[in-house]
Amino acid sequence: MASISHSPVTFAGTSASDLLRSSSNGVRGVPLKALGRARLGARRKDFSVSAKIRKVKKHDHPWPQDPDPNVKGGVLTHLSSFKPLKEKPKPVTLEFEKPLVALERKIIDVRKMANETGLDFSDQIISLENKYQQALKDLYTHLTPIQRVNIARHPNRPTFLDHVFSITDKFVELHGDRAGYDDPAVVTGIGTIDGKRYMFMGHQKGRNTKENIQRNFGMPTPHGYRKALRMMYYADHHGFPIITFIDTPGAFADLKSEELGQGEAIAHNLRTMFGLKVPIVSIVIGEGGSGGALAIGCANKLLMLENAVFYVASPEACAAILWKSAKASPKAAEKLRITASELCRLQIADGIIPEPLGGAHADPSWTSQHIKNAINEAMDVPHLEQELLKMDTQELLKHRMLKFRKVGGFQEGLPVDPKKKVNMKKKEEPIVGRTQHADLEGEVEKVKQQILKAKESSSEPPLLRLNETIEKLRKEVDHGFSEAAKALGFEDKFAALREEFLKVNSEEQLIDPAFKNKIDKLRNEFNQNLPKAPNYESLKSKLDMLKELSKAKNLAEKNQKAALLKQEINQRFKEIMERQDVKEKFGALKTEIQSSGASKFGDLDSNLREKIVKLKKELEFEFADVLQSLGLEVDVMKSNATQLEELIPPSEVKAKIKELNKEIQEGIENVVSSSDLKYKIELLKLETSKAGKKPDLASKKKIAALEQQIKQSLVAALDSSNLKEKHEKLKAEISESIGSFGGLDGSLKTENPDEGRVKINVGANRC
């Protein structure tokens, strides 16, 4: 700095040029320090000149080695306000990730217990960690479109500058649009990757609330797009390939932005990018919203991170327009086809960059490394087409133009090229809407209330509503079993077994016993592991509801069938009783009884009693024929019922016989369920099926041998138990009780074999 004090009076004997020479050259002229007091005519005046030189630290340009000791890699922090965060970002759990939180807490608790007690829980910790990793893998390999949208919007997702500082050797940020403003939502700069210089530009979101406000949540104004445009011209002039990073919900659509020409700025960028003579690669690292993303996305190659999304309208906006509610955003996200895999199928995106399990925020450096590899591959590695860096200008411009010209190109009336069919999405079955668990519980409860009301009012239960609810529950249970099979790793096993079964079934053969054992073994293994599935509790709840409603449905159907059967039986009996010949017989018999004057059956003569018994038997047999025609079992038991009932208490005999029959049945079932006998029975079925209607001699011998072995096994098993003794004992008791009326073998003997009574098993099902 220099300060000069002077007087308006003239200098005596000193010119202005001398003073200037003195100030510029201390050798030939008078040095500034030598200037002292001088006589200026008659009056004396002080004159002094002083200068201060500021010491400036010398920098190595263009890039110092380590400008910031906390950041390695030559980041010019004096040119960029982007620095590492002092505090770690708070962990954020998305809604669909909440099932994993319980496992994380369990792992933390076990580790804490191990530290406190000093016991070795390493096996339990490893088991829990493996279970957590498997659940995480299952979750992130079956993400829905709306879940990918939520991951792309994750607050801790790495930003543009995070990736740039990780992948570049050196990077310097360039500011301003040369029109008076520097938009912080768009960052541009020059950097090197493996010694090659590139122009980087991209949307920059904040890593916390303060940064998001500063960066306007990654939504650029017209100044941001004009800054990007300036850097495009700069890169085009110097021959730097351009790499753009897209991560914005859309351009900032406020009144001021519209006044400053938001639409014009975006359109200008679109037109300019199609004429740039350098390769352009765009990478969607988060959200790619509408024209705000496309303004820096007209590239030769468009790459997307695995959980990134690229859309013309956000799912919430689309749902609000089409379904009048933002709650339909999951459905909108599915219909919009905005995920990386869908856009690759439509040939809008050219490649997918993988992310670690848990999203890019789980391991940002790993993601950045894959982005770096993708950039190098897009620029240098030859594909089906020539690599971008070796294309001449005309090829590059044509390549970029054709990439966008083929998007959405369809022509009616022409057959589709088989090569194009490879990337076309196959026609899918219409997706049946899933029902929420809470809605299912509410629906089941309503059905239960309706069934209870129907019972109280003795009316029929609402079978239609019951059937609809059961069908919904069955679909949910099937879906739950499929999800459990995926989570437990049984999906491939079931698929292989299904293919094997279809092959066997196509050959029209019975299932081989060994294959059936294989099926049973896999089913038992799956059932044992089912409680370990993440969705086991909800699946069990749905199964219980399904069993309860199915039981109610069966009961309602049985009651309905019984009521209809009863109505039909009464109608048929009425027809018999109203028949003319039956009426005549009843009339004649009634007249004879009245003319005899007897008041009791015992007072009637033998001839009249025989007529009554005969008519009764005729009606009983007709009733039996009616019941048999309706598919009911009818047993005509020849016995002297009156004398037998006097000698033997029927209830005791029936109870004992029933108990013995039950024990015999259980014994036979236990023997049949044994693996050896079961295998022989399956072999017998298989041999019988192979032999056909006309078996040869060898087949007959095999079948006879197997039948003999099965009979011997059954007899041996029953003889080994005490069932035979119980049977002989019960037989002896019955024989003693009816000794005067029956034989030693317990068989009943009747004096009059024509007498009998009809026992009708009304509970039997119809054929």
Automatic annotation (TrEMBL):
Please tell me the species this chain comes from: Morus notabilis
Where on the tree of life does the source sit, at the highest rank? Eukaryota
> Which pathway does it serve?
Lipid metabolism; malonyl-CoA biosynthesis; malonyl-CoA from acetyl-CoA: step 1/1
User: What EC number(s) does its UniProt record assign?
Assistant: 2.1.3.15
**Which ranges of the sequence are coiled-coil?**
539-572
This protein is called: acetyl-CoA carboxytransferase
Q: Which GO terms describe its biological process?
A: fatty acid biosynthetic process; malonyl-CoA biosynthetic process
Under Pfam families, the record lists: ACCA
**Alphabetized UniProt keyword annotations:** ATP-binding, Coiled coil, Fatty acid biosynthesis, Fatty acid metabolism, Lipid biosynthesis, Lipid metabolism, Nucleotide-binding, Transferase
